């Protein structure tokens, strides 16, 4: 019989609905049940595309004997970290503090008061490599609970006090300066390997989209050649390795080197947030350099998101799994994406298969597992015979579509859809792809229609057009506002600016603490053992830096001192962390570049449908000035405050550029406008 998770909206929780474990969702009734029975709580946190989450489930949660022990001795709670990032953040902080590492699946044992006392991640079904088995852990925890309850309680209270006492404040740090941004750049330079194009040591490499955005903006503001060279090198490395899907477009989660001197191979899950951020930064790289590789990667990533992640409701699904059926009934990581020489020959014929194997690095012995190879580009310039490569790609893509597909997590996460809206709107505008702008608009419509209530409060997730029960967190408000502002700039529709304003007013009213500090949950959200707060950027912009960026852009559009002041207050953390840990505050550094440059405000006035208006508007969007905002509309339009009192010039469409309370003379010339938005020195 299905357990309580059968009524969940999360695909991850639904994956566990048929477990023999008597799972609860995170809800007051679960804690009351533990209190009534006098047993500890086992909290299991994961997400649908997590490979080791699936392994733990198949080995332990689907095992009848293990489940029976869990049901008898614990109240068991299952949480989707993507639905409840607040719960995940609080207990992951405890796991990392206790064990020195973290990850998913996350396993936490705690009291009925939600106070944690024992932690872990994945546990094997039997003792292995010095690790206790999951059953041994369960038995040990329950033995401590029954035999040393007072000691367990003291540990739980001490951990909870430690967590509750943590808070981050940058009060007194001041706003980022030219010097602090330069020091952050120097720190990145020390962490960058120009030979490989990757940041950081070790064999595991993650995408660096937010750091690259900072580098591009820093170059645009200062003309620093080194910043641009690092951006180009990092993007080339990501695009040429198997981090990028060379057949279907889009990026995997990360790559790692499995054997010395071997190729980097991916962890094959594909996340919406990675692809949205990378699509946008490659579009920005093309805008700055005209790189053909950047253009191709941006467009192919946008097409991947639309083709494989778009839902019938118009939003974008969260992720694709790493695993899929290998065609023989076995669930295997990467099966959908890897190739053998024999498979190439079956699809392409002998000649093109030999060409493809050489070009993409497919070998007889294999570069991945069981004789299969991941696809990667040669480490050099683009191939001369681009037409042949494209023909091969299209045939491989068509053949791959016949393979069993990886599972898809269909829930719509507000924040990640905000990132996708910004990426698709700008990519569509840059490359004359109105279909991408339309997809961005449809996703924005879904967020307004389904996620946004009458009080401008956001739901974190939705599925099948139905909003979930969990409240939006700070990153939802910041990233959705960012998406709406980008869409406003591309479409000239002021309604998106207005919607962004609604969301940012909630940020100011509900998420801001003393000294400009920001919290990840609203002041009226469910109380956990601590109010989560993390200013550092990880796989996505933190809620803190996302909100700071949107607040700054909104202030530039509207002239609101309240919003600009809040942005400046929030950016103190960037000045404090940037020079010491720039890879973990990349988006914050990018926003700081916009602050130092203004950001510039561009108003384009002219009749809709006029070629001159369109040309000025496109030129404004292609300007590289960091974080510049663009408003386009008819003279006298009330769509944007920036258009107020901006007449045509001699009856012709015109552009007005302002920066830090100083405005240049209006221009009707594309060349002049381009110069006003070029590198500032």
Describe this entry's structure for a reader.
It is a single chain. This protein has 681 residues and is an alpha+beta fold. 48% of the residues lie in helices and 12% in strands. It contains 24 helices and 21 strands. A five-stranded mixed β-sheet has the order 1-3-2-4-5, sandwiched between helices. Strands 11-12-15-16-17 form a five-stranded antiparallel β-sheet. Helix 13 packs antiparallel against helix 14 and helix 19 (543-558) packs parallel to helix 22. It is globular. It starts with 10 loop residues before the first helix and ends in a 5-residue tail after the last helix.
Q: Which features does this protein show?
A:
single chain, 5-stranded mixed β-sheet, 24 helices, 5-stranded antiparallel β-sheet
């Amino acid at each position: 019989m299905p357990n309580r998770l059968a009524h969940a909206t999360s695909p991850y929780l639904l994956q566990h609905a048929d477990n023999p474990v008597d799972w609860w969702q995170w809800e007051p009734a679960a804690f009351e049940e533990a209190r009534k029975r006098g047993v500890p709580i086992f909290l299991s946190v994961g997400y649908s595309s997590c490979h080791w989450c699936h392994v733990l489930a198949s080995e332990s949660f689907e095992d009848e004997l293990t489940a029976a022990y869990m049901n008898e001795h614990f109240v068991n709670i299952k949480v989707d970290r993507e639905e409840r990032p607040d719960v995940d953040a609080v207990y992951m902080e405890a796991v990392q503090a206790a064990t020195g590492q973290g990850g998913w699946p996350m396993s936490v044992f705690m009291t009925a008061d939600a106070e944690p006392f024992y932690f872990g991640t994945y546990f094997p079904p039997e003792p292995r490599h010095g690790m206790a088995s999951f059953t041994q852990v369960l038995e040990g925890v329950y033995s401590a609970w029954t035999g040393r309850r007072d000691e367990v309680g003291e540990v739980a209270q001490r951990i909870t006090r430690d967590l509750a006492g943590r808070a981050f404040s940058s009060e007194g740090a001041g706003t980022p300066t030219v010097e602090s941004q330069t020091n952050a750049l120097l720190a990145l330079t020390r962490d960058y390997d120009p030979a490989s194009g990757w940041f950081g040591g070790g064999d595991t490499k993650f995408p660096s989209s937010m750091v690259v955005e900072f580098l591009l903006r820093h170059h645009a503001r200062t003309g620093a050649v080194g910043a641009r060279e690092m951006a180009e090198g990092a993007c080339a490395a990501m695009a040429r390795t198997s981090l990028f899907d060379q057949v279907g477009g889009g990026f995997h989660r990360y790559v790692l080197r499995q054997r010395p001197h071997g190729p980097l191979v991916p962890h094959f899950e594909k996340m919406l947030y990675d692809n949205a951020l990378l699509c946008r930064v490659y579009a920005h790289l093309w805008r700055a350099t005209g790189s053909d590789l950047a253009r191709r990667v941006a467009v192919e990533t946008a097409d991947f998101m639309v083709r494989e992640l778009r839902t019938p409701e118009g939003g974008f699904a969260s992720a694709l799994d790493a695993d899929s059926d290998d065609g023989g009934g076995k669930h295997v990581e990467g099966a959908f994406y890897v190739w053998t020489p024999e498979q190439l020959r079956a699809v392409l014929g002998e000649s093109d298969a030999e060409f493809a194997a050489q070009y993409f690095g497919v070998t007889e012995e294999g570069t991945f597992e069981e004789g299969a190879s991941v696809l990667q580009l040669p480490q050099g310039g683009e191939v001369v015979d681009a037409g042949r490569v494209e023909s091969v790609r299209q045939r491989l893509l068509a053949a791959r579509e016949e393979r069993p597909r990886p599972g898809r997590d269909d829930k719509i996460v507000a924040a990640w859809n905000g990132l996708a809206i910004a990426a698709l709107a700008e990519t569509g505008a840059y490359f004359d792809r109105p279909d991408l702008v339309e997809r961005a608009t449809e996703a924005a419509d879904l967020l307004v229609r389904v996620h946004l209530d009458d009080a401008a409060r956001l739901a974190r997730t939705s599925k099948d057009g139905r909003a979930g029960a969990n409240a939006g967190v700070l990153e939802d408000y910041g990233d959705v506002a960012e998406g709406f502002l980008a869409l406003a700039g591309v479409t000239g529709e002021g309604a998106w600016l207005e919607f962004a304003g609604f969301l940012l007013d909630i940020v100011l009213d509900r998420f801001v603490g003393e000294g400009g500090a920001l919290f990840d949950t609203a002041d009226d959200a469910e109380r956990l053992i601590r109010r989560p707060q993390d200013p550092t950027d990880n796989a996505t912009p933190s809620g803190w830096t996302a909100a700071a960026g949107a607040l700054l852009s909104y202030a530039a559009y509207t002239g609101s001192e309240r919003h600009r002041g809040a942005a400046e207050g929030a950016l103190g953390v960037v000045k404090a962390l940037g020079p010491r840990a720039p890879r973990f505050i990349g988006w914050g550094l990018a926003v700081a570049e916009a602050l130092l440059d203004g950001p510039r405000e561009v108003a384009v006035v002219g009749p809709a449908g006029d070629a001159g208006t369109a040309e000025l508007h496109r030129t404004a969007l292609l300007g590289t000035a960091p974080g510049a905002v663009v408003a386009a509309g008819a003279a006298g339009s009330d769509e944007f405050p920036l258009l107020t009192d901006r007449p045509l010039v001699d009856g012709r469409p015109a552009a007005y550029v302002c920066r830090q309370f100083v405005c240049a003379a209006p221009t009707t010339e594309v060349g002049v406008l381009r110069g006003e938005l070029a590198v500032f020195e």
